[in-house]
Specification:
Order of helices and strands of chain A: HHHHEEHH
Helix content of chain A: 55-70%
Largest interface: A-B, 66 and 65 residues
Distance between the termini of chain A: 30 Å
Structural class of chain A: mainly alpha
Strand order of the largest sheet of chain A: 1-2
Radius of gyration of chain A: 20 Å
Number of strands of chain A: 2
Oligomer: homodimer
Strand content of chain A: 5-15%
Chain lengths: ~160, ~160
DNA sequence: TATTGTTATACTCTATAACTATA
DNA sequence: TATAGTTATAGAGTATAACAATA
């Protein structure tokens, strides 16, 4: 055991789980500030990313990927369509299906988001030197892959209170 | 620049910010599952932790520490009081102030939460060897302290955004 | 009858503002 | 007049269920 009973619990250093939650929230908030400046929400940014990677996805598939209800996807796509970033089009093969695509403006926004997120890396890892950053990156990648987490859609979308 | 334009953006490895958000969500979810089993929410667990460390804190101070409105603290303490984990008592010095304390049951719950969270460390860091865990722990501590994050305040299970 | 998408509705979480009781 | 706490209310976000169109 790392911290024997002799050491008061209140003085024990924060655990890895705690630190990951804390720093994850910090990173998420920083990203949210960025998307806010660009006029969209983090969730919408996530949808744009998925649309950019999976061409011709439909709303049911998107809902499944996000782990959310189809009714929520309706509202999400409504917003992105109104903003001019995405389009719906009925499949000619099966007219129940709405095929989703990015517009040119959507692709531009996606590129902006990626640039902003990349620029934010420095801010988030400020306080670490280059070697430490590389090391941290490798450890987090290892952990993420060991957990089987999907680099395409991350679990920030899942409803925590439902479990 | 780490990833030159030659490399397609879609193939670039996930950034540290993304990984922190992803793993932070995973850790928060695991913790939420634990608190659910114990019959409380992650936010309430966070309040118990603060009450356990700062004796005689009042509601305004707690609101400030949580970064939330005083009105929300009212509801939070209502629940913890009903559950028998915390008590309010008017200060005799200034009768506007409600002094908050843990009950014995509250301290017992706090101990249960700490044990459960400690047991969860292994689950969260599965895939890393002992040396890697120590290294990761140190890097995260350094980052958290560089960000000025409060080691007492767990961000709860707020919805984390996507990167 | 089953599936895709939509609408209607309700519930949870949270913040803002008005209010009370003390100072 | 200012402060600590409370209550009232509203808004955002999300889920469930009923419904429409299509298969």
């Amino acid at each position: 055991m790392l911290y024997p009973d002799v050491m008061p619990r209140s003085n024990r250093p924060a655990r890895i789980g705690f630190l990951l939650t804390q720093l994850g929230t910090f990173a998420a908030e920083a990203f949210a500030a960025t998307t806010r400046e660009l006029g969209i929400t983090p969730v919408e940014a996530g949808v744009l990313r998925i649309l950019g990677r999976r061409l011709g996805i439909n709303q049911r598939e998107l809902a499944e990927k996000l782990g959310t209800a189809q009714s929520r996807v309706v509202a999400l796509i409504d917003n992105l369509e109104t903003a001019g970033y995405a389009t719906r089009s009925r499949s000619t093969v099966d007219r129940r299906i709405q095929l989703l695509e990015l517009t040119d403006a959507g692709r531009t926004m996606l590129a902006r988001l990626r640039n902003a997120a990349e620029a934010q890396e420095a801010e988030i890892t400020d306080g670490l030197d280059t070697g430490e950053r590389t090391l941290l990156h490798q450890l987090l990648l290892k952990l993420s892959s060991a957990r089987g987490l999907d680099p395409d859609v991350h679990p920030g979308y899942r409803q925590l209170s439902d479990h």
